[in-house]
Amino acid sequence: MSEASTRLGQVLVVCAPSGTGKSTLINKLRAEFPTFGFSVSYTTRAPRGNEKDGVEYHFISRETFVAMRSRGEFCEWAEVHENFYGTATKPVTKMLDQGMDVLFDIDVQGAKQLRKTFYKGTFIFLMPPSRKELMQRLTGRGTDSEESIAKRLANADGEMAQAEFFDYWIVNDDLDKAYEELRAVYMAGRCKPELRTDVEDILKEWN
């Protein structure tokens, strides 16, 4: 019997201030568990370079996006630099029903929207060991201007203030330790009773 037929998928949401090391940790998780589902988002911006419709994004008009939003088709959406971005609910729900876990690398506001639809998901907040350390990491990258770093720090202040929204906190002071914790939270989430449809027959023996 395949795993997809014995359990429902888990929504795993990971948020963190810029410079915390979120991408590195998520890439490690994806490398170990390559079967994560991926939902292609919708956007109103024009394709860049070799981007193809339906691959990097579904490229749609602003009018179409607004109509989809009005019909409640997005589980999360945002306006960034005068363009809309959103994740449709149906494809995510379909993957979950097939037993696929779906990972969201998203900001805090997007996570709050997702909670309304996927309230049984696992919501994780990654944080740096200190504000000073985060500043050093952002400065050490050598890729951002002083203005950009100041903006990222200001955003981090706002995000850290909303940490209590999340189910789990992971401090990325040591990458290996942080990954062990991220992996542990993910694996524990897979054992939530509401996802373990394979246990129903076992429980019936005691009813």
TrEMBL record:
Q: Which InterPro entries match?
A: GK/Ca_channel_bsu, Guanylate_kin-like_dom, Guanylate_kinase, Guanylate_kinase_CS, P-loop_NTPase
- Guanylate kinase-like domain: residues covered: 9-187
Tell me the organism. Answer: Pseudodesulfovibrio piezophilus (strain DSM 21447 / JCM 15486 / C1TLV30) (Desulfovibrio piezophilus)
Protein keywords: ATP-binding, Cytoplasm, Kinase, Nucleotide-binding, Transferase
Please provide, in alphabetical order, the Gene Ontology terms of the cellular component aspect for this entry.
Answer: cytosol
Q: Which gene encodes it?
A: gmk
Q: Does the keyword Nucleotide-binding apply?
A: yes
Could you read off the lineage of the organism from its UniProt record?
A: Bacteria, Pseudomonadati, Thermodesulfobacteriota, Desulfovibrionia, Desulfovibrionales
Reaction catalysed?
A: GMP + ATP = GDP + ADP
Binding annotation for ATP? 16-23
Name the HAMAP family for this protein.
Guanylate_kinase (MF_00328)
- The protein's superkingdom reads Bacteria
| Job of this protein | Essential for recycling GMP and indirectly, cGMP.
Q: Which family does the record assign? A: Belongs to the guanylate kinase family.
Q: Extract the PROSITE patterns matched here.
A: GUANYLATE_KINASE_1, GUANYLATE_KINASE_2
Q: Where in the cell is it found?
A: Cytoplasm
Q: What is this protein called?
A: Guanylate kinase
EC number(s) per entry: 2.7.4.8
